[in-house]
Design a protein that fits this description.
Blueprint (H helix, E strand, L loop, with lengths): L12 H15 E7 L3 E6 L2 E10 L2 E8 L2 H10 L1 H14 L16 H16 L1
């Protein structure tokens, strides 16, 4: 008698996509957060800051990838820097058409929204 043969498993395209999405979401991790203000996330070595902005009856999130200078400031000043940076993003109102915010062009929320939400859900559970 020979060795038992391993049964091959074939995934449907939908299952392959779901598996890939789970792997991608798993790569995003929550590192820290300040309630009602921001989440600091890591994605394949990149640091992302998800800032909660609220202006009167409008609320939205802005997700930016930290630059090397911002990472250096974060390493030196810690959470105080992230509090300052999130306040700067918030006060610049990058969602407004007329906004001159320096963060406006850096908002990557639309690219990573679902992955960030999944990472936050996993972190909270």
């Amino acid at each position: 008698m020979g060795k038992p043969r391993k049964k091959k498993v074939y995934l449907t395209p939908q299952a392959q996509t779901h598996s890939l999405e789970r792997q991608e979401a798993a790569s995003v991790k929550v590192l820290d957060h300040e309630p009602y203000r921001w989440f600091l996330l890591e994605d394949s070595g990149d640091l992302l800051l998800d800032v909660s902005c609220q202006h009167s009856f409008i609320s939205y999130n802005v997700l930016i990838q930290l630059t090397s200078d911002e990472i250096q400031e974060y390493r030196q000043r810690g959470r105080d820097y992230l509090n300052w940076l999130s306040e700067d993003v918030h006060n610049s109102a990058p969602i407004l058409k007329v906004s001159q915010s320096i963060y406006k062009g850096r908002n990557i929320s639309s690219l990573h929204k679902e992955r960030v939400i999944d990472a936050i859900k996993a972190w909270r559970s």
